[in-house]
Amino acid sequence: MRAWQVTELGQPRDVLRLVDVADPEPGPGQLAVAVLAAPANFPDVLMCRGEYQVKPELPFTPGVELCGEVIALGEGVTGFAVGDRVLGGAVLPYGGFGERALMSAATTFAAPSALDDAEAASLYIGYQTGWFGLHRRAGLRAGETLLVHAAAGGVGSAAIQLGKAGGARVIGVVGGPAKAEVARKLGADVVVDRHEQDFVEVVKAETGGRGADVVYDPVGGETYQRSTKCVAFEGRILVVGFAGGQIQSAALNHALVKNYSIIGLHWGLYNRYDPAAVAQCHRDITALAERGAVRPLVSERLALHEVADGVQRLADGATVGRVVYVRGAQR
């Protein structure tokens, strides 16, 4: 089969190579799938650089989530059949950026019929992260104000839709007019172009000085620091990631004085500690997708030979929504 492999560490465009490799065989508890679609995620970027907490042995094929068609079952796998259309996480080193991949039966779910392959592939990590962050960790309530950073990106776009589905008033922060238009179409009630406005002042103005009840922050660094200036009394700041490249330090005296919570979210740990909750989350999100309340924003469908360029553009912050490798895509 053809697959992208990382043979040395560095920027995605420099280290990804499209090569011929042997088809992967499923081990116990695993599924072999024909890849139908696989989105680029920031962990793919970080793994190419060697900066992610998961460091696969070289060479490896990235693509941490996908939608696929089951072609073989490993020992002990039940509940799936050859031909099933599924979504979930990849088992590295056989990730989704190739013609075939491996998946763990424990983290694989039926793909919703309401979504096409690219959309279904994008329903896993971003939406699970948003669901657990907003509802389980932050306890978002209807009528509260939710501030979403990087609101036109893959993770942020999911948070907007899930926040709206949960009854929140959503303020989205983006960079540039094109991304602002995307955030509006996703349902954000207020959109802030950070190149033109100070989101701190906008949040204060929109909430009568109270601030945001929940801040969804996949950016980190200065974005986090400034968010502390506009979080509400008893507000919650969700630390989702550090896409801005800087890991911030938290001034705990400030959290004490303003009575807000700083909440970490490592969604992947739920697959280890509470897999039943992950399965229930998938059922809940599927129900939202079936009734049209959420739909992943797929901005680009890439052919296999375009994957390295797409991952690099994600790394450079030049993408909107989800950039997805789709089997058979022609560009």
Description:
The chain has 331 residues and is an alpha/beta fold. The protein has 2 domains: 2-123 and 296-326, Medium-chain alcohol dehydrogenases, catalytic domain (Quinone Oxidoreductase, Chain A, domain 1), CATH 3.90.180; 126-268, NAD(P)-binding Rossmann-like Domain (Rossmann fold), CATH 3.40.50. 31% of the residues lie in helices and 27% in strands. It has 12 helices and 14 strands. Strands 3, 4, 5, 6, 13 and 14 form a 6-stranded mixed sheet that branches. It is globular and about 60 Å long. The relative contact order is 0.15. InterPro entries: ADH-like_C, ADH-like_N, ER, GroES-like_sf, NAD(P)-bd_dom_sf, Quin_OxRdtase/zeta-crystal_CS, Zn-ADH-like_protein.
Structural class: alpha/beta
CATH superfamily of the largest domain: Medium-chain alcohol dehydrogenases, catalytic domain
Q: Give the amount of beta strand, in percent.
A: 25-35%
The total of helices stands at 12
Question: Do you know the CATH topology of the largest domain?
Answer: Quinone Oxidoreductase, Chain A, domain 1
Tell me the radius of gyration: 19 Å
Mean pLDDT: 95
How are the elements arranged and paired?
Layout: E1 2-6, H1 12-15, E2 16-20, E3 30-39, H2 42-49, E4 65-73, E5 85-90, E6 100-110, H3 117-121, H4 125-137, E7 145-148, H5 154-165, E8 169-174, H6 177-186, E9 190-193, H7 199-206, E10 212-217, H8 222-227, E11 231-239, H9 252-258, E12 261-264, H10 270-273, H11 275-290, E13 298-302, H12 307-315, E14 322-326
Parallel strand pairs: 7-8, 7-10, 8-9, 10-11, 11-12, 13-14
Antiparallel strand pairs: 1-2, 3-4, 3-6, 3-14, 4-5, 5-6
